[in-house]
Amino acid sequence: MNNAASVPYHIGIIMDGNGRWASERGLPRSMGHQKGAEVVRETVQTAADLGVKALTLFGFSEENWSRPGDEVSLLLRLAETYLKKELNALHKENVRFRVIGNKSKLPKSLQTIIDEAEQKTINNDRFFLNLALSYSGKWDIVQAVKRIVAEGVDPESVTEEMVSQHLSLSDVPDPDLLIRTSGEQRISNFLLWQAAYSELYFCDAMWPDFNKHELTLAIECYQHRHRRFGKI
Q1: Residue 102 marked ligand-binding
Q2: 64 an active-site residue?
Q3: Is position 16 annotated as part of the catalytic site?
Q4: SS (H, E, C) the chain
């Protein structure tokens, strides 16, 4: 990999392909989700080791609520299990953790562990781990607009910067690189505002097969791109 100066500060990942990974192996979809949850820990560690400062993982979208109830329950239980298991390690490694999304829709037990994790790690600053649960980019923008309206701001004075300051990740630089696994090539309502100028990278590996090699390839591809942000 090229020098650390060109490592993306913030990476977003759409973790896709758990169900297909399991189906291709004749396994229940639940096994794919369980394997995918195990990959999260390795990905966080690898990203930090490679010099990335912030990682936002798309774990569960607003649209995912329409999936079968047992699969939804499993996904949310896995998120809760991950947090309970990894919280102390995250804190020890000086990682700040938070969840973005409509947390009020999540099970109370999951909300409780999220609150505990966010409060325990709030002052950590070596690495920033954001998990998107019950999240959509459109929801994020609508919430920002509602906050601005509630402040009584004159509509004529609303700016792009003001909207950005009211989004879920207002204190984190926009993602430099957005990765989607499993070969699908769309961003599926993820960080719509923040990803306006993100570099997009689509890999064929299913999320359960995503590893250090795959992340390194994505970063190397990013390093060879020339980011113009609309300029020449």
Answers
A1: no
A2: yes
A3: yes
A4: CCCHHHCCCEEEEECCCHHHHHHHCCCCHHHHHHHHHHHHHHHHHHHHHCCCCEEEEEEEEHHHHHCCHHHHHHHHHHHHHHHHHHHHHHHHCCEEEEEECCHHHCCHHHHHHHHHHHHHCCCCCCEEEEEEEEECHHHHHHHHHHHHHHCCCCHHHCCHHHHHHCCCCCCCCCCCEEEECCCCCCCCCCCCCCCCCCEEEECCCCHHHCCHHHHHHHHHHHHCCCCCCCCC
Of the candidates 16, 140, 174, 176, the residue annotated as catalytic is: 16
Q: Is 147 annotated to bind ligand?
A: no
Which tens digits make up the pLDDT trace of 145-179? Answer: 999 999 999 999 999 999 999 999 999 999 999 99
- Looking at domain 4-223, which CATH architecture does it have? 3-Layer(aba) Sandwich (3.40)
Q: Which of 49, 64, 70, 171 is catalytic?
A: 64
Q: 228 a known binding residue?
A: no
Instruction: Average pLDDT across each block of 10 residues of the chain; the chain has 232 residues. List them in order.
Output: 79 97 96 96 96 97 96 96 96 98 97 98 98 98 98 96 98 98 97 98 98 97 87 70
Does 18 carry a binding-site annotation? yes
